[in-house]
Amino acid sequence: MPLNPVVESVTARIIERSRRSRRHYLELMAYNRAKGVSRPQLACSNIAHAVAAARPSDKEELLYNRVPNIGIITSYNDMVSAHQPYGRYPEQIKLFAREVGATAQVAGGTPAMCDGVTQGQDGMDLSVFSRDVIAQSTAIGLCHGMFDAVALLGVCDKIVPGLLMGALRYGHLPTMLLPAGPMGSGLPNKEKVHVRELYVEGKVGREKLLEAECASYHGAGTCTFYGTANTNQMMAEFLGLMMPDSSFIRVNTPLRQEITRAAVHRLAEIGFQSENPLPLSEIIDEKAIVNAAVGLMATGGSTNHTIHLPAVARAAGIVIDWEDLSRLSDVVPMIARIYPSGSADVNRFNEVGGLPAIIAELMGAGLLHKDVKTVAGGGIASYARRAVLDAQEKLVYRSASPSSDLEVIRPVSDPFHSSGGIRLMKGNLGRGIYKASAIAQDNLTVEAPVRVFETQEAVKEAQRRGELDCDVVVVVRGQGPRANGMPELHALIPPLGVQMAKGHKVALVTDGRLSGASGKVPAAVHVWPEARMGGPLAKIRDGDRIRVCAVTGQLDVLIDEEIWEEREAVEVPLSDAGMGRELFAISRNLAPPAEKGASAVLSMMDHDLDELDDDLKKVG
Q1: Is residue 606 very low, low, confident or very high in pLDDT (cuts 50, 70, 90)?
Q2: Is residue 196 a contact partner of residue 209, using CB atoms and an 8 Å limit?
Q3: What is the pTM of this model?
Q4: CA 160/CA 229 separation, integer angstroms
Q5: d(CA 98, CA 61)
Q6: Residue in 155, 137, 21, 23 with CA at minimum distance from that of residue 76
């Protein structure tokens, strides 16, 4: 099957738009590569510091540069369930490396906050900006010049994008992401949401709610709904940065351990000084980014990746925008239904075919670039394979089988939706993103009067007082990166869901974010220009009428044009004090729009390519 013409044209558009920045990036990687792994050039005192704590046999190998050395960047902490398993990974990786004559060292650690813990709390304001800190922490860990390859340990929300942003600045090094896997299935997500709504209505108490939450989030591993964390894993596979079929293998199982072993062995094989190195900069190119976007659409993934994918791409000198994503969404059918888009969790999704079945379908329909490099070799086709253990408990791969449950995965010829799950919204309120994959057909268009709020708590209080017992478009403004760091507003979903259950037409419009688990509430998110910068949301008043239509992509306030133009924007307050938020004033002041990735460090990094080009010339 030839490549779909829209996929081809979007890719060409990205290549042309990125020509200069990509050239600069590749020149920088060539400069890094020419300098080589720094270990052989380190002065005696330098390298003595680096190996002082190594075991004696590893020390000699490292001192004389005899074997490849894998640098581990870990986001381990034992509060975040998805990251708790990483506590034992460094020792495992070192053992697996020795099996193939390599060594490994923990190069550094990064923070890994949990959006699930900080939902609705002041700490959530640090979430997006933590991604830049993770990228910088990754760069610091790799700056020692001791490494031939990189193993990235991270799973959730901002962590994987941050790791990739940092690692891409060392793109001359072969790099892999090693996931830890999802926890076992607990209380079904639909039941959990039902208990949340009963709690909002006052029909059950805190004890019952806590019992339901703990039955859902009950052990080590990634949460089992298809939110940002699990979308991260999917996209890393579509980018060719993990072992095939490694996203959703259960945590702490023999198969998971064997995949980790295979990943370490492969890293040693493709390391910087190997016969056939596979640098990260050669794997992440425009075609790989488009493949990841196709995966996002086909599986109904998290809207957070309309921020993260542009940021990761920019770290590699590639410029994508929401127009690219929207055009891909128009031609990529949604062929998976995973909660919140359906009832199945990621474990069920994996059981009935998983990503190998998805990739095989998309390849067969000409929706993926096949001629890409991947850490596994063999292009994206090598990811249309299932990972299993043979009779000797060794990892083997078999060709993907078609879906065994058409309620979870369908063929391209009979999709759940003819287009992808993400829609670009445009109108006199600006540009935004809409996740249509979980929205019922009769809720895709909402036209209703406005209620304007500036905090989540104010919305919840209005709902408790009965003020939202009507058709309504709830506008929550002052939630963009320049205002308060662009927190997720997931705490709004239960109360707004209750209003929908009463039969009211409800929609949310905000310059903030919703998580990948945003559920059934129609929402236009990431709207920019944001209100803090005088964007259109700052001109909205209670009683205005807004039309939010995911069918046409319309995001408009229905008001006379002259009146709208003359209306002044209100001043949106800045939220910057307490819970460490004051430490991130630079990030807020420099953050670009969500469509450009909302990354202050990337914004500053590429703001003047002329100056950067001159710098490269100076260093040869």
Answers
A1: low
A2: yes
A3: 0.94
A4: 8
A5: 11
A6: 155
Residue-wise pLDDT for 293-319, tens only, equals 999 999 999 889 999 999 999 999 999
HSE-CB for 285 with a 13 A CA cutoff? 19
In the Cβ-directed half-sphere of 510, how many Cα atoms lie within 13 Å? 29
3-class state of residue 386 by DSSP:
strand
578: left (phi over 0), alpha (psi -120 to 50) or beta: left
- In this structure, of 122-126, 142-146, 293-297, the range with the lowest mean pLDDT score is 122-126
Task: Name residues whose C-beta falls within 8 Å of residue 506's C-beta, 6 or more positions apart in sequence.
Answer: 446, 448, 468, 471, 472, 473, 474, 496, 499, 500, 521, 522
Angle between helices 5-17 and 322-331 (to 10 degrees): 170
Nearest to 402 by CA among 444, 360, 372: 360
Greatest alpha-carbon pair distance for the chain in Å reads: 78
CA distances from 262 to 107, 265, 269, 373, 397 (A): 21, 5, 10, 18, 12
Question: Going by C-beta distance under 8 Å and a sequence separation of 6 or more, which residues neighbour residue 568?
Answer: 539
pLDDT exceeds 90 at position 537:
yes
Provide the H-helix boundaries in 465-584.
Answer: 481-484, 493-501, 561-566
pLDDT digits (tens, 9 = 90+) for 382-426: 999 999 999 999 999 999 999 999 999 999 999 999 988 788 999
Nearest to 151 by CA among 65, 242, 25: 242
**DSSP sequence for 230-289:** HHHHHHHHHTT-S-TT-TTSPTTSHHHHHHHHHHHHHHHHT-TTSSS---HHHHSSHHHH
Distance of CA 611 to the CA centre of its chain: 31
CA atoms within 13 A on the CB side of 504: 23
Distance, CA of 360 to CA of 429 (rounded, Å): 40
